[in-house]
Write a structure and sequence with these properties.
452 residues, 37% helix, 15 helices, globular, nine-stranded mixed β-sheet, alpha/beta, disordered N terminus, 21% strand
Length: 452
């Protein structure tokens, strides 16, 4: 690819291709409920999660990203020399200086391409969206040299034993970004909200586990959603020449998914935002009793939440359900979670149905940073759906017992930051074509192999 005319703004910039990697093992949330001695449905209904992916010490953030990039290149038959930017969004940090991106350069160096811009971006679950924004901005700038960009969003979502552990998971999504894409970023429809908050953070460098204020984090997520949604809708209204735009102007919704029930609540809350803008509309009659609530009260009102969920039950199934499927099968993936939702939507809805549809996309990262954009489906998505092949691949996983998951977490706890170390996890859990950690030497240098 070459850029012959930089004076012309590149058209239809967006997602050209997608690939996803997730571990070969998972555990059923219903079995985790029994193992943890909690009430039936606490995880499967209360969190809305079905299964949870996990790994041991044979994989790390770099190995899963290597696998995702290699698979993207091979499955779509992309030349390594056609990539001019590579951005990684992750909060799974294994080195305070050396980026994951530099390790991924081993794949490109083998093909003689060392001129690739981009580096890692870190801020909780928001890093993947920031990396995507950087890639899009590069293509739409004078710096662009006509080549594709690749965005990697991936993490190991790991929690200490306790209430938060059922929201664990692991996965990575690789995204090819370029012009003339079938999944196009809509220009002028973007909103952002950022604050300083200690809702979820990782201050202890000796542990992979975060410090979490669960209730506060949920409020931060919803507050940021409200701010982004209000600003986005104002800009959408200007584009549509519509005084009171609403969720009726959106075809599908993809939200960052730490667990499925929070996505349900945020989508439902959109109806409250629409009601505040159009409070005399009869379709919001069930929300009239909450008209006098203060904003802060609305964030914590269970009655309002219940009313909004009831009001939007049918539209949730239609607009959000297809995007919720994959995250419910894997669990949290931090930066990858929202992109896994988009991959799920492309996989669950046929290409003809998606044509010319608007997809609202909400990314949230604790601390906090959030943005909302929309995509317009302007081309066939069949090839992406076929390459992803998500339902078949998810069904082919090994369903392990909760004790195996607990044992894997204990291995990671005991070997975190280890050097001069050879992983003990069985290679039987590594599928063919997947990268794994071969060893870590006495200088903390990591070496990887691809299982043949």
């Amino acid at each position: 690819m070459t850029a012959n005319n930089f004076s012309q703004y590149p058209q239809n910039v967006g997602i050209v291709a997608m690939e996803m990697y997730f571990p070969s093992r998972c555990v059923a949330q219903s079995e985790m409920e029994v193992f943890d001695g909690v009430s039936t449905g606490k995880y499967s209904i209360g969190l809305g999660q079905d299964n949870m992916a996990f790994i041991d010490d044979r994989e790390d953030i770099q190995s899963i990203c290597l696998t995702a990039v290699q698979n993207l290149m091979e499955k779509y038959k992309i030349s390594y020399n056609d990539i001019g930017r590579l951005e990684v969004g992750t909060e799974t940090i294994i080195d305070k200086s050396k980026s994951v991106k530099t390790t991924l350069m081993t794949l490109f160096g083998e093909h003689g391409n060392t001129e690739i811009e981009g580096i890692d971006t870190t801020n909780a679950c928001y890093g993947g969206f920031s990396a995507f924004s950087n890639a899009v901005n590069w293509i739409e700038s004078s710096s662009w040299d006509g080549r594709y960009a690749i965005v990697i969003a991936g993490d190991l979502a790991l929690y200490a034993s306790g209430a938060a552990r059922p929201t664990s998971g692991a996965g990575v999504v690789a995204i090819l970004v370029g012009k003339d894409a079938p999944i196009v970023v809509e220009r002028g429809l973007r909103s952002t909200h950022m604050e300083h908050a200690y809702d979820f953070y990782k201050p202890d460098m000796h542990s992979e586990y975060p410090v979490v204020d669960g209730k506060f984090s949920n409020i931060c997520y919803l507050r940021a959603f409200d701010a982004c949604y209000t600003r986005y809708m104002k800009r959408l209204g200007q584009q549509l020449n519509k005084e009171k735009p609403s969720m009726d102007d959106i075809d599908y919704v993809v939200c960052h998914s730490p667990y499925a029930k929070l996505v349900n609540k945020s989508f439902a809350r959109a109806s409250y935002n629409d009601f505040r803008l159009d409070n005399n509309n009869e379709k919001y009659a069930s929300l009239q009793p909450f008209a006098e609530l203060s904003y802060n009260e609305s964030l914590e009102s269970k009655d309002l939440e219940k009313a909004c969920v009831g009001l939007t039950k049918a539209s949730y199934a239609e607009k959000v359900g297809p995007a919720a499927f994959v995250p419910k099968q894997i669990g949290n993936m931090y930066t990858a979670a929202v992109w896994a939702g988009l991959a799920s939507l492309i996989s669950e809805v046929d290409s003809d149905t998606l044509q010319n549809k608007r997809v609202l996309f909400y990314s949230y990262g604790s601390g906090l940073a959030a943005s909302m954009i929309s995509f317009r489906i302007n081309g066939a998505t069949d090839n992406i759906k076929n390459v992803l092949n998500l339902r078949e691949r998810l069904a082919a996983r090994t369903f392990s017992k909760p004790q195996e998951f607990a044992d894997a977490m204990k291995i990671r706890e005991n070997t975190h930051n280890a050097c001069d170390y050879t992983p003990t996890g069985s290679l039987d859990h590594i599928a063919s074509g997947v990268y794994y950690v071969e060893k870590i030497d006495d200088k903390w240098r990591r070496f990887y192999k691809r299982k043949d």
